[in-house]
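@channel sequence for tomorrow's demo:
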Amino acid sequence: MSEITRSNKKNLERFGKIISFICVSVMAIGALVIIYFVASKGLSTFFVNKVSIWSFLTSQDWQPSKVDASGNPLVGALPMIIGSFGVTLLAALIAAPLAIGAAIFMVEISPKFGKRILQPVIELLVGIPSVVYGLIGLSVIVPMMRHFFGGTGFGIGAGTLVLTVMILPTVTSLSVDAISAVPRHYREASLALGATRWQTIWGVILKSCRSGLLTALVFGMARAFGEALAVQMVIGNAAIMPTSLVEPASTLTSILTMSMGNTIPGQLENNVLWSLALVLLLMSLFFIIIVRLIGKRGSIK
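C-alpha cells (generated this afternoon):
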C-alpha cells in the first residue's frame, strides 16, 4: 500500500513538472515569436526598401508617402523618438519624488492611515483604464495648459502630466514594497544610536532600499514609454521636432496607433511603422535589462 502511495506521489510530481514545463515553454515560445515577428517586419524597411538605418534614426522629416530630391523616402523617426523620451523622462522626474514621499508616509509615518486610505486609492488609480486618463487630460490638463502657457494646450507638457498621474500608482506601490522590505532591526539600531526618525529614513532606510526604488522608477518609465492611447489624446500628434512643451508633438506609440490602420501591409508606409514598433520593443527590452541589473546588484549587496 505504501509503495502504491509513493508511486502515486511520484506520478503526481512528474505530472506537475510536465505541466509547469509546458506553461513556461508556451510563454517563452510566444515571446520569441513576437520578437521575431516584429523584428522581421521592422527590418524590412532597411533590407527590402533600402532605407538607411542612420537616416531613419536621425532624420527629422516624417512623410512616408513622399521622397526627397534624391528619391529617398522621408521616414525620419527622430521627432517621435525625442517625443517618447521627453514625456517619459519628465514624467519620471515628477513622479519619483511624489511616489517615494507617499511610500515613506505610508510605511514609516502613518502605516495605519496608509493601509486603510491610501492603499485602496492607489489600487483604484492602477485599475483606471488609460482612455479615462486621456479624457481627463483632454478635458482638464489641455485647457489648463492653454490657459497658463498659451497655444493649443496640446504637447509634451500635457502628455507629461497625464503620464505622471498614470505611473504614480505603479511607482508608489513598488516603492512601498521596497521600503517595507528593509529589516526592522535597521531602524531599531539607528534609533538606538540616537538618530532621529528623519535621519533614520534618509540615512538608513532609503539607502538600504535604493535598488528597489530604482527598480520601481524603471518600471514606471517602461509603462510611460509604451503608453499609447492617453498620450495620443493630449500630445497633438504632429510628427515634427518638439521645440517647446506646449507645442503639438508626437511619440512612437501615438504615430503607430494613428497610422497603422491606414497603410497596406508590405508597402514602405507600413514597414516603417513596424520599424517604429521595433524601436519600441528594443527600448522595452532595455528597460527590462536595466531592472534585472539593478535587482542583481541589490541582491549582491
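heads up for whoever presents: The longest helix spans residues 2-47.
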